[in-house]
Amino acid sequence: MDKTVKIALQEFKMNFARKEYKFFAFVLPGLLLAITIILAISGLQFSTMQFELMKQSYYFFAFPSTIAMVFSLAIFLSANFMLQGIAKEKENKILEILVSSVSFKQLLTGKILGLSMLGLIQFFAWVIVGVLTIFLIAPEIFEEIFSSFLGTQVIILYFLFFILGYLLYASLLASIGVLTETRSQAQQIGTMLTGFVLIPALSTMFITSNSTGLYSQLITFFPLTAPITAMIRIFLGTMTPLDIVLSLGILCITTAVIIYVTAKLFRAEILMYGKKFSIRSMIYFVIKG
Asked: What pTM was computed for the model?
């Protein structure tokens, strides 16, 4: 079996067993589905007309806010496993042993693939629960959405923004794990960085009230906030095809560059064993390393 696949499977199995992952990927959506079933049995249902009236309510932002928070935490949780793993391996001197048997590219690719599988399981678990929730308590809306290509289109777009957002943050956190000396230091910097993924969720009220304004446009195209902001605007129906193409394009380019830089830093970390990175050495290894 290819070494990259072995690393991916090992990373997947190790992190799949984590209690925090199982709680967020299975227990939490399971609880939501159970509550939905209870509400449906009790006779609670929303019609299309009621939903349109709710859109005019001041508290309507709670819907996109919930979506944003769920996927923000999904990206944060899975990507953070990358940071913890690399920081631990570096601190325990395991990273040097690993790269003696596999290439830098195989190691990084395997880790990203393994954690991507975890992220995809979370994504589809929440999507399935979301679809079932709409089906049980808003059958009219479900029929309206999924009788056409609209529902499938939204899921595809959510998937693209989610997976690109995950790859972006996983790569960034991997580079932080390589550059820092201890796990505590890596965790502190990583927490500050992943705060960006929560900005759209915390700004949902402003985005909902003016989803085509300057602020909404800026965080739609800024890579660190783009994935969740795009999801909110897709839900609101204010994301134009041009916005989607531009946002996805910027995310793809940014993610590819960061993965490339992270791979270079992986290699530099081994070559500079026992030494600290400087800005000059980082630039040298990224360009010529």
From this structure: 0.84
